[in-house]
Amino acid sequence: MKVRLLVVLFCGLLVGTAGAEEAKETQRTSDTQATTVTQAVCLTSETQLTTATKTVALTSGTQLTSVTKTVYLTFDDGPSEYTGRVLDTLKKYNVPATFFVCGNKSAEGIGLFKRMIAQGEAIGNHSFSHNAKNYKNVDDFMKDLNKQDDSLSSSTGLHTRIMRFPYGSNTTQVSQAQMRAVITAVVKAGYSYFDWTADAQDWKPGATKETVLKNIIHDTKADNRNFAIVLMHDTKKHSMEALPSIIEFFQKEGYRFEKLSPQSDTRRFTTIN
Ligand SMILES: [Zn+2]
Question: What's the pTM?
Answer without folding.
Answer: 0.77
